[in-house]
Amino acid sequence: MRSLLAICLAVLCLVLVLGMPVEAEDRARRPDTPFLGLNPLDPFAPADRDPVRLERFADLGATFVRTTPIAWGALEPAPPRSGPPRYVWKALDEAVLVWQLTGFRPVLVLTPSSSWAAAPKEGSAWVQELKAKLPAVEVAGALRSATGCTPPKAGLWTAWERFVRDVVERYDGDGTSDMPGLRAPVRHIQLLDRLTSSGWLGSETEYMRLLNATGQAAKYAAKTTRILTAGLDLMATGHAPHPDTREWDYRIGQLVPKDAVLSRMEMQRAFAHIRRVLAMPRLYDALVQVGSAHHADDVANLRFLRRHLDENEGADTELWLVDNPTRKLGAARATGVVPPKGPEQRLRRRWLPVARNPLHSKHADAAAWMRRGQAFDLVRGFSRSRAAGADVVLFLAPWDEMPKGHPSGAKGPGQGFLVARRKDAPAAGTTRTPSYWAMKQALRLLGTHRSAGETPIGAPGRSVVFRLASKKPRPWIAVLSLDSRLSWAGAPGADLPIRDVLVGLPSGRYILESCRLGPEAPTRRTIDVKESMVSLQLTPAPLYVIPTGD
């Protein structure tokens, strides 16, 4: 009886959802802007600009790739003495060219870090606050982790503006002082990676001044330049019943113990910066939100930011989600606001140690399961993020051999898009992961879509439909997926049931395509719907429902 009731609810809900006319586009998206991308590539690391290593991405499709922070001092290591500045462009030029030939669209992350131009760390706002509020015995440890940059020295702000203009001019493709061999304009500049003590030591006022100066200088060189903020981390405060910046102090009290003074200071400082950034959307073109370790946190934070921007003269501001962890199964940061851990989390805890142990008899099965699950999570993650208001979503890193301290915190199997076959020569032998094929499929099917919506189907935990509007001849597309609390398909030693869902579709011809997990053609079939009810078999692998327009 309960199963019948759940199916009936699913029928009613999907008939209403998929039978409705497509909503109007809420924000016009630029035709040259992909909606997916990767994190990060280091322009100064030879491996990250190696054409042999990167050519495996050439058929992926147009995607963004964010750089690691590019320091002012790395491109201009010495102050100008006489004549024009002496820049060192070689490494960045090579990286931009190789990335563009591969199909990537670079987002340059600039930072004023410089041995000769940046203000001393000792006089920065954050260091002064640490010395004023922490016991002397704790200051030394806090200072070791405060590795962020400082603003330009008092007399060198104009030099910073000149530097930004010159960077934009070199890569704007207007024929003036351009990089030799530039394939396409580089349109996106991000100011700093994150507004944490590991990325920034200045005050919120200094950051807003730097953001304003950077934007003016960049747009002076090329009006089409898009300015991105540093990554903001709402730390799950979007879950507040009535999300508002005035409630953040209360949320800090709930999330951080009173005796964790440094953590409390970090959060208060982060929110002070977020308040200032949200209050002045005219200074930037895209607001960057740092992904959390949980689907529900990301969705809540994105919805809050989208609503706040729309209500505060920022309706045309894009919202980017970046630095998402490789696996979306971590515990939510805000306790009591999301459902408890389900079978997926329990299975992951059970099989992750096996996947990391090459001597275990089930190692191969466990590693393969982790990689399939990562691919499913990627599709679930960007579908939910798009539905929550994100214009661009950047997932994962290209390589499995991530550097230590990567923002995702990922370790073990399933960290990137390429798997090293030989540990002694990772660049010589690699294969594409299921996530690579899943992302390529998503770019092919969803790349032209504009607005999105999310609707649960049937009983809680059954499935979710992500409905994305598009230009004709495909007026819309649906992505059906099981709820993130349910476990991935094909777990070693687990017999996970396939769930039948009865859905309502308008009359017409449809292609049903499963999530692609390898080089072989994905499972797909064409159905002609003359009646509104169709029975679909769903696993946690997302299923695309594509109108053909016939």
Write up what this structure looks like.
By secondary structure, the protein is of the alpha/beta class. It is built from 14 helices and 20 strands. The strands form 4 sheets. Strands 1, 2, 3, 4, 5, 6, 7, 8 and 9 form a 9-stranded parallel β-sheet that branches. The longest helix has 26 residues, at 363-388. The model is unreliable at 1-31, 325-340, 401-414 and 422-428 (pLDDT under 50).
Secondary structure layout plus pairing:
Elements: H1 2-19, E1 36-41, H2 51-54, E2 63-67, E3 70-71, H3 72-75, H4 90-102, E4 104-111, H5 125-133, H6 136-145, H7 157-171, E5 188-191, H8 204-221, E6 226-228, H9 248-255, H10 261-279, E7 286-290, H11 295-311, E8 318-324, H12 343-355, H13 363-388, E9 392-395, E10 397-399, E11 416-420, E12 430-432, H14 434-446, E13 452-457, E14 463-469, E15 476-481, E16 499-504, E17 508-514, E18 524-529, E19 533-538, E20 543-547
Parallel strand pairs: 1-2, 1-9, 2-4, 3-4, 4-5, 5-6, 7-8, 8-9, 10-11
Antiparallel strand pairs: 11-12, 13-14, 14-15, 15-20, 16-19, 17-18, 17-20
Helix pairs in contact: 7-8, 8-10, 9-10, 11-13, 12-13, 13-14
